[in-house]
Amino acid sequence: MDIKIITVCGYFGQSLPTDSSIDTEKLAKYLELKKHTISTIDIQDLQSEEIDTQAYYIVGSHQNPDIKKYIDDTLNIVFYGKNEKLLIPNKYNILAHENKGVQALLAKKIGTEYFPHQEYFIRPVGISKTVVAKKTDGAGSSGVELVNNNEALIQVLKKFSRYDLNLNYLMFALKTLIKKHLLKNKYSESFNTYHKKYTRYCLQEFYSGLTCDYKVLAFGSTLYVLQRDVRSGSFKASGSGKFTYPNAESELLDFCDTLRKKIETPYVSLDIVKLKDGSFKCIEFQCVHFGPYTQMNAKKKYVKSEHGVWQTKENNLSLEEVYAQALDEYLTKSAEQK
Ligand SMILES: Nc1ncnc2c1ncn2[C@@H]1O[C@H](COP(=O)(O)OP(=O)(O)O)[C@@H](O)[C@H]1O
Ligand SMILES: [Mg+2]
Questions:
Q1: CATH number of the structural domain 210-337
Q2: Closest-lying ligand to the alpha carbon of 237?
Q3: Which of 21, 25, 4 is nearest to 12 (CA)?
Q4: How far apart are CA 239 and CA 229, in angstroms?
Q5: Which residue, by CA, sits nearest to atom 15 of ligand 1?
Q6: How many whole angstroms separate alpha carbon 151 and alpha carbon 121?
Q7: How would you classify the pairing of strands 212-219 and 267-274?
Q8: Pocket flag, ligand 1, residue 294 (CB < 6 Å)
Q9: Does the Cβ of 138 fall within 6 Å of ligand 1?
Q10: What is the pLDDT along the chain (338 residues), one digit of tens a residue?
């Protein structure tokens, strides 16, 4: 198959550290070994080229918000209409990168049984029980807090909004204060409501009493599992640094394998929790630009055999190799289903 790798100034997606890209030359080499034809195109050049409807376009993402916006804008329009299916991962999953709000909306489309109940908001809503409030673009657990009443939500939203303060907004807030108290005839409540800062957030059903979560990287039917224990005095596991590589149970692996297929992606990073009744839920997912730490450091990988049995094997793959393997597996299966 013809595969085009979309890059941003040579950057495809995350290796370690975050600002170093997966090696696209190595990725291309491994894909060529699987009999694909590879070329690379910069995102800025996409708009001037005719889209090749015989090719697949693979894309990563970026954490710089201006670049991310450029990626979303460009891909949404360039892969318009039926060309949408040429883009891997699909544009909904790219939009969901660094955006827990989009993930909350997508969860309802993918299947509510895999996720906690969750919704995406722009204004404060009434709170009647303990829920998890998440800032849409929070990472490293800084934008994740428990709230149990209306006032607590207001306070958390104020805290989240402080993460985004910039000079333009400070100027607006200062002018509003002056109008409100000194130039009262210039103050308009409606003007303020329209222009003031809003903080996008989502509310998620809270699972109490968890001692850990699982970071599962699924590259096709090859999975890597990291257990992250919660920090002392907190419900949060991400960023705790308390990492181990467990002997993952097959129910967890089956859940992740099924969910990856439901998300319709060759690869995905899943944050999974196990509930008291033994069931699993996905509290966060990323299909592009996810942290590769688990894949790069795990001694073992879990591979699903043709008979559906999970086998534990030595992790003998580089990051580029496992990406290539997952893409090949996904494209081959898609071609078979056509
Ligand atoms: N719905 C939930 N119920 C219980 N704990 C949660 C829930 N959502 C998140 N957590 C905990 O908070 C941590 C951070 O949440 P997450 O949504 O993964 O954000 P991030 O990884 O961006 O910090 C998770 O690792 C998990 O331990
Ligand atoms: Mg997380």
A1: 3.30.470.20
A2: 1
A3: 21
A4: 10
A5: 141
A6: 16
A7: antiparallel
A8: no
A9: yes
A10: 999 999 999 999 999 999 999 999 999 999 999 999 999 999 999 999 999 999 999 999 999 999 999 999 999 999 999 999 999 999 999 999 999 999 999 999 999 999 999 999 999 999 999 999 999 997 767 899 999 999 999 999 999 998 888 888 888 888 998 988 888 888 888 988 998 989 999 999 999 999 999 999 999 999 999 999 999 999 999 988 899 999 999 999 999 999 999 999 999 999 999 999 999 999 999 999 999 999 999 999 999 998 999 999 999 999 999 999 999 999 999 888 87
Q: How far is the CA of 252 from the centre of ligand 1 (A)?
A: 18
Question: Candidates 160, 163, 283: which one to mutate for ligand 1, based on the most atoms within 8 Å of Cβ?
Answer: 283
Query: Residues 58, 3: contact at Cβ < 8 Å?
Result: yes
Distance 213 CA to ligand 1 centre (A): 8
Determine which residue's CA is closest to atom 12 belonging to ligand 1. 236
